[in-house]
Design goal:
Length: 145
C-alpha cells in the first residue's frame, strides 16, 4: 500500500511507500514498489497518466511498466493499493510504446485542428519558454539515486 502526499516541489530524497504528487507541476513520483530503489516518474497529462483522487486515496492509470529498470516491475496504483500486473515481453513493450506515441500524435493533432486558426498556437517555438524540461527533471532525479 502507498500513502500519498501532495507537494508543490518534490523532495530531494523520496521515502519508500509514498506517492508524491505535485498538482502544480502535473507530476507524481515514487520509489519503485518492488524495492529496487529506482525513482518512478509519472507525468500527469491527457496523453500520459491520469490521476484520480477521491478525497482519501489516489489511483493512477494506465499501469506503470518499469521496462527500463532491471526489476521490470509492472503494476497499477489503485486507491493507494498496488495491484501487480504481468510482465511484458519485448514485443508487448514495443507495441505499448507505439500505442503511446500514436495516442500523443492523435491528441496533439486533434488539439491543433480544434484550436483557433492562429498559427502561433501550432508551433513549438510559440510555446512559453520554461527553465525546465521533463528530461532535465528526469536527469536530476536519477542522478540523486
Amino acid at each position: 500500500m502507498l500513502q500519498h502526499k501532495f507537494v508543490e516541489f518534490m523532495p530531494e530524497k523520496l521515502e519508500e511507500g509514498i506517492l508524491y504528487v505535485s498538482v502544480e507541476y502535473c507530476t507524481a513520483l515514487h520509489k519503485c514498489v518492488c524495492g529496487c530503489g529506482n525513482t518512478v516518474v509519472t507525468p500527469i497529462s491527457p496523453t500520459d497518466w491520469q490521476l484520480k483522487f477521491d478525497g482519501k486515496s489516489i489511483s493512477l492509470s494506465p499501469s506503470i511498466g518499469n521496462w527500463s529498470f532491471a526489476c521490470r516491475s509492472h503494476y497499477w496504483i489503485d486507491k493507494n493499493h498496488i495491484r501487480w500486473a504481468g510482465n511484458w515481453d519485448k514485443d508487448q513493450i514495443e507495441e505499448g510504446r507505439k500505442e503511446d506515441q500514436q495516442k500523443k500524435a492523435r491528441y496533439f493533432n486533434k488539439l491543433s485542428i480544434s484550436e483557433p486558426s492562429n498559427d502561433k498556437l501550432k508551433t513549438k517555438e510559440s510555446l512559453p519558454k520554461t527553465s525546465w524540461s521533463w528530461r532535465s527533471i528526469w536527469n536530476a532525479l536519477i542522478s540523486k539515486n
